[in-house]
Amino acid sequence: MPKVQVIDPIEVRKPGFVEFQPIPVNQYQKTVQEEKENFTTEEFKAIYHDMVLIREFETMLNLIKTQGEYNGTSYNHPGPAHLSIGQESAAVGMAWTLTVDDFIFGSHRSHGEILAKGMSAIHKLDDQQLTHIMENFFDGVIYEIVKKDFEGPVKELAKRFLVYGTLAEIFARKTGFNKGLGGSMHAFFTPFGVYPNNAIVGGSGDIAVGAALYKKVNRKPGLVVANIGDASMACGPVWEGITFSAMDQFKELWEGDMKGGLPVIINIMNNQYGMGGQTCGETMGYGIAARIGAGVNPEQMHAERVDGYNPLAVIDAYKRKRTIIEEKRGPVLLDVLTYRYSGHSPSDASSYRSKEEVEAWESQDCIRSYGEQLLEAGVATQADLDAILHNIKELVYEMFLKSIDDLISPKMENPDVIGEMMFSDGSVDSFSDAQPEVLLPLEENPRVKKIANKERFAFDADGKPFSKMKQFHLRDGLFEAIIDRFYKDASLIAYGEENRDWGGAFAVYGGLTESLPYHRLFNSPIAEASIVGTAIGYAMCGGRVIPEIMYCDFIGRAGDEIFNQLPKWQAMSGNVLKMPIVVRVSVGSKYGAQHSQDWTSLVAHIPGLKVCFPVTPYDAKGMMNAALQGTDPVIFFESQRIYDVGEQFHEGGVPTGYYEIPIGEPDVKKEGKDITFLTIGHTLYPALKAAKELEEKYGMSAEVIDARSLVPFNYEKVLESVKKTGKIIVAGDATARGSFLNDLAANIGQLAFDYLDAPVCVLGSRNWITPAHELEEAFFPQPSWFLDMINERILPLKDYIPGQNFTDSEFIRRAKKGV
Amino acid sequence: MAVVVIMPKQGQSVESCIITELKKKKGDTVQKGEVLFSYETDKASFEEESPVEGVVLESFYGEGDEVSVLENMMIIGQPGEDISSLLVGRGAVEDEPEEEVETIESTVSDSFRGDVARQEENSVVSNKEPGAIPVSPRARKLAEKNAVDTSSLSGSGPKGRIIEKDVQAALEDRPKMTPLAKKLAAEEGLLPQSSGTGLAGMARASDLFLPVNTVYGKDYEDRKISNMRKIIARSMHASLQNSAQLTHHLGADARRILALRKKVKAMLEEGQLDVNITLNDMVCFSVIKALKKFPNVNTHFLGDSVRYFNKIHLGLAVDTDRGLMVPVVRNADDLSITGLARQFKEIAAACRNGSVNPDILSSEAGSFTVSNLGNYGVEIFTPVINLPQSAILGVNTIVPRPKDIGDGVYAFVPFIGLSLTYDHRSLDGGEATRFLKQIALEIENLELDIFTLIN
């Protein structure tokens, strides 16, 4: 525990120097001749083969993009093709020693890595294993296509399978590795250890770290390689991922066999350009990218630069780095120097580099120079090399023809199936067969014992509320659901800022620390991109995880992870991947403009996320149970204003046992007949106060519906209510403009038009910064605002003097001003 | 040069006329002064003569059409003449048969189309009730379902929007409606009367009426009248215009006929009689007896001659759904009281169900007419003579009147009122009075042979 780590002022105030070890640069300089005893002839030739395969594959795509044909066959590929011609030795060297258990994650320029890692797996798997994989992937659809009219050995068949599956994916065919939904920049094939490539620069920088976390926590064999470009070293999430991977706690605080570094290699595929920007000399300042390791931890991430133009140098580095990983001394940083002749993309005119520079690199071409070494060392004859090239050309052309044939490789006839892939909608008790590691029996947990004495319904038999301290709080409901899952699913981990000893900033996790070992509950760096990004990698590999965003306002810090990665991978993988992630997000108040914003609308806007916002203990527990039982990414909002609210609605109080409340079902919290209030989040409570006043003073009875979820959302219950009342106010704490409230309102307006007795009204917060607590009443919807709105837009109330100005002219005036 | 014949304006208040007959059709040749068409206003009918000699080049309306005054009716000119310039500005093309519209449209100018479009637009605007009052979709739906006219409501929502509760309040203010009434009301825009005739005041389809906006809208509706009405109107009007009518009123002691009535009623109930002999039958029977004694009354006045009838052909005014009818019992003086009663019932029924022989309906068929309003409680009225008959008897209700019953003793006695209208051209007051008195005597001393027969 950190308490044991005393920060001694005498120690830390001592004078001294930070010392660095020299970082090796291109130290390996051996040739084929010199490595003859470490490789068989076949291995040498296979390395050559794999490089040529990549070269031909990329050349084919280059010809299609630039000339519209390959070997005289025309084809139009409108999608992207970021090619890696010139980088083949770096890819093959990286993949050569990796086993099927080792995972690679890539970038937008990863066709070569897919083929290299795929070939590496084909070399290592026996025929039976290969056949099993091919027969079972997508029910053998690809297998049937490549097997047709082919009589050769299984490994050759597997090669056809690899080339075809990748190419069909690039060409958006239903028969691609990801049903054509990933495409060139996202293609992957997990049975060969090829994990998602990522079209966002540095996207894999934190995801791969999460994959390594999964391997470590779940004791899975293998290491994880993040193939990211040299330019991605400037990206915040990459730096966050590296920082996360190098946390001291792995070595200092994690216990038993968990002690030790993460099995991850940050592999910089350093082709020396970020699109058109030169990373060395123009857009970065590191000079040599390997230098970065020195800034991360005392081990300097075991960083070194390797000559990626020599496949043997990369293979050598991987052999050595594997040892470091196996000794639990990760993470590792590799700077693999390489060069691409092809442009960033087909539209690249290479205006940023000279012809001479490209020619100079071509003159040292990795494939030709390696081939020459093979000839020199007498490992292969020119005829051997020619035969390899010839066979590859034949194979690539044949697979090309198959993949562009609409009969063999149809495009998705009914794109509506994409809708079916947005969510996996699974129900899984546990993602692990292991016994969940806990430190004490559940009933002995101090929080569990404390909760046992609480009143699970807010009111006594006479309807009098119990004291706040006696009541079972919303945070208790969350805790019960979460600790229950920790005792059921060994794969479940939770982390975020102050999650462990602190018990979470808002005491939801109080008592969890006592039950869970470090590797299941820990504090992360204050780096939201890494918190969410690593969780994505963790879940992609098959684990369940609860990352926490302490304040809703920090969502922006994990923008790419929440908006581009988390929501998309289930569908982009063609449903190969599941995303059992529950991102807990706490919505603040009292702390002003950057700590009190309701950003539910932002995530609701992004397809692929389930979004819920329960505001009662009963709903919180039931929906957390449902979220944790599911297989989809859920953004789980909680309101800091009501963590201590008791259960006021569910008769009998919050059940002690397990139950689920399905995400997507709004709930009528109070029945009424004259008007409907539909609320998101905490606003339920002001709405109930408004309903009371409305009833007492104006004889109108309001039906109050708690949306509970934003995505998915069942409108039926709301429409039923509107059909009854004819009037509705949709209210929430989000700033009104562009909020999800408007989405609900517009849809209700359309679906219940003939039943409406007044326009659907939206009551949100003002379009300002959230002011200080003292001024919040002027910002967030108050009970009186409901009456103001009714009086102005729905039904004039007798002798009513409005507080808020909801007139048309004021609305227009504010809109003109942008407030 | 072709000439346009318009629908003339007949008097200040006339807005339109109905074409009763087209005497000339498109293509017909006409002489100057020949009648082109006849038409009528609500007061009179007229004929329009051709102002020139020529051919009917165009005729815009058909028989029965209602045409606004000053509207073009026909174009008279020479065959083959270009009349397109005359068509400009003429509205109501939509009333034309289709082929003709086409020929017209092919020759009309764009400005003409524009005019029509504008006119239609204007008429749309002016026909609609002011639609400025907003109505919520829910209120509109409820109003439509229950046939509530929202234009008559005032809204209590923001900016005067009519909301559900305004419609509900309107619904509470009117009787409940049967499903059929609701359906009809919704389809035809009708409203129920304030209290319906159904169970518990429920409004039935028959209780619906057209809503009237008494403040801004017109509170009347012009309906074409039936032929029957026309005949009645014509004959009644002619009667008053063309004769010298006056009416004498006289009462007859009704004790005798009331006693007789009691008797025949009892007999009817006991089955001794197979026909119900009413007071009216007895009065008519008395009238026949009186007529026999006053042949000057049983006549037609024909201007320069008087037609005397040997037999008595008695007309009886009958009120039917379609209007007043006066069927005649021919040779009524040949009938016994039971025969007369039976005949009256037969012809009255025939009139009511429309199967009456038209020959017995004409005023020429009868020699004298009785009109009995006594049933309705009328005490005095002045019946209008069914010309060319010389007189008509109106029978009133029976009222008790004081009468000297001898020895200066007065008692209330039932009297039946008799109102004789006679044509002074045909009869003088003395004779008419004596005739009327004779009827009273006959009534007061009526003997019916049925009793003697039975006895």
Question: What features would you describe in this structure?
Answer:
The complex is a heterodimer of chains A (819) and B (455). Helix content of chain A is 37%, strand content 12%. Chain A is of the alpha/beta class and 819 residues long. Chain A folds into 3 domains: 37-409, Rossmann fold, CATH 3.40.50; 442-642, Thiamin diphosphate (ThDP)-binding fold, Pyr/PP domains (Rossmann fold, 3-Layer(aba) Sandwich), CATH 3.40.50.970; 667-817, Rossmann fold (3-Layer(aba) Sandwich), CATH 3.40.50. In chain A, the strands form 5 sheets. A 7-stranded mixed sheet of chain A has the order 12-11-13-14-16-15-20, with helices on both faces. Chain A has a 6-stranded parallel sheet with strand order 4-3-5-6-10-9, sandwiched between helices. In chain A, helix 8 packs across helix 19 (528-540) and helix 19 packs parallel to helix 20. The radius of gyration of chain A is 30 Å and the shape is globular. Chain B has 3 domains: 3-127, RNA polymerase II/Efflux pump adaptor protein, barrel-sandwich hybrid domain (OB fold (Dihydrolipoamide Acetyltransferase, E2P), Beta Barrel); 137-209, no CATH class; 228-454, Chloramphenicol acetyltransferase-like domain (Chloramphenicol Acetyltransferase, 2-Layer Sandwich), CATH 3.30.559. In chain B, the strands form 6 sheets. Chain B has a 6-stranded mixed sheet with strand order 11-20-19-18-14-17. The longest helix of chain B has 18 residues, at 110-127. The model of chain B is unreliable at 89-130 (pLDDT under 50).
Described by the principal axes of the CA atoms, the overall outline of chain A is: globular
Biggest interface, chains and residue tallies? A-B, 12 and 11 residues
CATH topology of the largest domain in chain B: Chloramphenicol Acetyltransferase
The end-to-end span of chain A amounts to 49 Å
Q: What profile does the largest beta sheet of chain B have?
A: 6 strands, mixed
Whole-number mean pLDDT of chain A: 95
Number of separate strands of chain B: 20
Strand order of the largest sheet of chain B: 11-20-19-18-14-17
Name the overall outline of chain B: flat
Helix/strand/pairing category of chain A:
alpha/beta
Name of the top-level CATH class of the largest domain in chain A = Alpha Beta
Radius of gyration of chain B: 31 Å
Strand content of chain A: 5-15%
